[in-house]
Design a protein that fits this description.
With 210 residues, the protein is α+β, with helices and mostly antiparallel strands. It has a single domain, classed as C8orf32 fold, CATH 3.10.620.30. The chain has 8 helices and 9 strands. Strand 5 and strand 6 form a beta hairpin. The radius of gyration is 17 Å and the shape is globular.
C-alpha cells in the first residue's frame, strides 16, 4: 500500500488504505464467526456480505475508457493499478473484485470473470459471476447495475465466455457453460496474472486525482 502511495500519489494511497482495511475487517469478521456452529452454518451469508462489500467499494471508482486513461484501446489493469489510477473500465472493476474475493477466502471454483454483450449499451462488457454451488445460477457483480442479481434477472447481458484462475468456458446459457480448456489461452488474462504476482505497476497517461 505504501508503494501505491509513492507511485500514484497521496489520494491513491488513501484509496489503497481503505481497500486494505476493508479486506482486514471482512477477514476478521469471517475468522471470528468460523469457529462457532452458527458461523459454520452461516458461511453463505458471510460470503454474501463479502460480495456486497467488495462490489460497493469498487463501484465508487470512476468509469473511464482505456483509450482515455491508458492511451491504448484495451488495457486490463491489475487491482493495484485500478486503485492507484482511481478508475478504469469494466474489465478493471471486475478484475479488482475477483482478486479481492480471492483474498477474502472465496474459492476460485466459485468465481468467474464473464465476458458478455450488454444489450442496453450495445457493447461488450465484463462482470464477475459467483456460484454459491456448482449447479447454481450465478450472482453477478457489475459496475453498471450496482445491485447483485442472479444471472436470470439480467436479460440485458448475453454471456459469451467466462474464465477464472484455471479454466475457460464458452457460455451457451445463463449458468455453467461448456468447458473449453485452460484459462491460459487468454493472453490478456495471462498478463494480468503475471503482473499481479510481480506487482508490476504502470502509470496512466492522465491523473484522475488532479
Amino acid at each position: 500500500m505504501h508503494t501505491i502511495r509513492q507511485f500514484y500519489g497521496e489520494r491513491a494511497g488513501k484509496r489503497a488504505k481503505a481497500w486494505r482495511l476493508l479486506l482486514q475487517q471482512l477477514s476478521h469478521k469471517s475468522a471470528h464467526n468460523s469457529g462457532s456452529i452458527s458461523g459454520q452454518l452461516n458461511q453463505q451469508q458471510q460470503e454474501n456480505d463479502k460480495l456486497k462489500s467488495v462490489n460497493q467499494f469498487f463501484n465508487q471508482l470512476e468509469f473511464i475508457d482505456d483509450i482515455v486513461l491508458w492511451g491504448i484501446q484495451d488495457y486490463w489493469a491489475i487491482p493495484q493499478e485500478f486503485i492507484g489510477a482511481g478508475g478504469g473500465d469494466c474489465e478493471d472493476f471486475s478484475i479488482a473484485k475477483y482478486y479481492s474475493l480471492l483474498a477474502l477466502g472465496v474459492d476460485d471454483s466459485k468465481l468467474r470473470l464473464v465476458y458478455v454483450k450488454s444489450m442496453s449499451l450495445n457493447q461488450f462488457h465484463m462482470v464477475v459471476a459467483y456460484y454459491p454451488r456448482p449447479e447454481a445460477v450465478p450472482l453477478l457483480l457489475d459496475n453498471i447495475d450496482g445491485e447483485i442479481k442472479p444471472a436470470t434477472k439480467r436479460p440485458d447481458l448475453i454471456p459469451i465466455y467466462s474464465f477464472n484462475g484455471s479454466k475457460l468456458w464458452l457460455m451457451k446459457q445463463k449458468g455453467q457453460g461448456q468447458l473449453a480448456g485452460n484459462a491460459s489461452r487468454l493472453s490478456a488474462w495471462n498478463e494480468v496474472r503475471q503482473r499481479t504476482e510481480q506487482q508490476d505497476f504502470r502509470r496512466p497517461i492522465i491523473n484522475l486525482d488532479e
